[in-house]
Design goal:
Elements (H helix, E strand, L loop, with lengths): L3 E4 L6 E2 L1 H13 L19 H9 L3 H15 L8 E2 L3 H10 L3 E9 H10 L8 E5 L8 H11 L7 E5 L2 H9 L4 E4 L6 H7 L3 E3 L2 H8 L2
Parallel strand pairs: 1-4, 1-6, 4-5, 6-7, 7-8
Antiparallel strand pairs: 2-3
Amino acid sequence: MKPVCLFDLDGTLTDPKEGITKSVAYALGKFDIEVKHLDDLKVFIGPPLQDSFMKYYSMDEEQAQQAIQYYREYFSTTGIFENKVYPGIAQMLQQLKAQNKKVLVATSKPEGFARQIMEHFQLADDVDDVCGATMDGSRSKKGDVIAYALNKHHVHEMDAIMVGDREHDILGAKENHLPCIAVLYGYGSREEFEKAGADIIVESVSELTNYLMK
C-alpha cells in the first residue's frame, strides 16, 4: 500500500452533520430563508461552501460570500464542536503511524478550523499535518488542497492515496493523478462514487483500515 495517506475530514474522519447543518441554517436565516429539516442541508457536507450556496440556493458570488461569513459566525464558536469522530478512526490512524506511513488531512474546510477540530478530538497527534482551505477562498477546491498537501510535504503522486466520502474527493484525487478510496459510511453514495470513478469503495472504517494496512 502507498506510504502516504491523505484523508478528507468531514464525513471521512468525523461526522460533522449537526454542526454544519446548523451553521448553514443560521446563515440562510440571515437571508430570511427558513429551513424546516436540517437533513435537507446534508448536501453542504463536503463541497466548498460557496459552491453549495450558489448551487442549492441560487446565490450569486457576492451573496454566497456573505452567507459564508454568517455561517462562520455560528460555526466558529458552536458548530465546530457539534461533531463526532467515527468509531475506529483514532485506532486506524495510530496503526498507520505505527507502520511509518505519512498521514495527512486534506480538507476543503478552512485549515484553522480543521486543526481546531483535530486537536479538540485528540486526533492531531495521530497525523503528520492538517492541510486545508484558506479563509479567503483562494484555495478551496479539493484538487487544489490535495496539490498543496503534496507540494508542502514533497510527496510524489506515485506514493500517495486519497480517502474521502464525496465525488469532490475522487475528482480532486484524479486531478493530482492519485488513486482514491471512497467510503460509504460518510455522505456519498455508491452511485456517486462509481460515476466519479473511485478506484476502491469500502463500506466501513474496519474495511478501510484493513485495506490501508495491507
